[in-house]
Amino acid sequence: MDREQLAANLTACRSRLKEASARWGDVTICAATKTQDVSTINRAYDEGVRIIGENRVQEAREKFPALNPDFSLHIIGQLQTNKVKYLIGMAKMVQSLDRIELAREIDSRAQAAGIRMPVLVQVNIAREPQKAGVFEEDLESLLRQAGRLDGLSIEGLMAIMPLTQDQESLRPLFRRMRTWFDRLRDEAIPGAGMRVLSMGMSGDYTTAAEEGATMVRLGSAIFGARVAPH
């Protein structure tokens, strides 16, 4: 994608977000860079993008050496425990923490490196069997357990909504995520801060922003249709 089109797409996204989130305040863009080449991603930095999200650890590792070093790289896809060792020194946040075994592995690796890894807890708000994420009834328990791990810094929640053309059908789910976010912030669970609510993607980000997202993960809205991997 050329620079002009990328800039135009980002300008349009930011304008829509500003209007949609007027009730809540600014929304941060995490550019979802799956299958995008390094030169395109680095052009996004030139247009003001500072956070990028990769689904697969292996793809992130391949790109990382050539990316602008000032990017904050987030892992936004389902994460296997055996891939955690590759994240230290590369990822600035894991948005897809969904089980205590993964939390303990991140904790162990982070403590060994003398750091605390920022994480978001992924909630399977629509209870989709094919998707990762903790169910609502298990959310507080996971937060309380993970909040005790010194190698983690829990920053908030993340959710992936069902794929649908009907954004309005997603509104109750976005609203429920914001309700959880506010409730858990008020509860002040030790070690579990609520600063980031990452929800909304290219097909539904304006609805997410209207319902209180603080971060959206945008791929095709910025970069156009996804490029098929070679």
Can I get a quick summary?
This protein has 230 residues and is α/β, with parallel strands linked by helices.
Relevant terms:
single chain; 230 residues; alpha/beta; TIM Barrel; 8-stranded parallel sheet
Question: Can you put this structure into words, describing what you see?
Answer:
This protein is α/β, with parallel strands linked by helices and 230 residues long. It has a single domain (3-223), classed as Alpha-Beta Barrel (TIM Barrel). Helices cover 37% and strands 20% of the residues. It is built from eight helices and eight strands; from the N terminus they run H-E-H-E-H-E-E-H-E-H-E-H-E-H-E-H. It has helices at 3-20, 38-46, 57-63, 100-113, 136-146, 171-187, 205-210, 220-223; strands at residues 28-32, 51-54, 72-75, 93-97, 117-123, 152-159, 192-199, 215-218. The chain has an eight-stranded parallel beta sheet with strand order 7-6-5-4-3-2-1-8. Strand 1 (28-32), helix 2 and strand 2 form a beta-alpha-beta unit. The longest helix is centred in the N-terminal third of the chain and has 18 residues, at 3-20. The protein starts with a helix and ends in a 7-residue tail after the last helix. The model has no long low-confidence stretch (mean pLDDT 95).
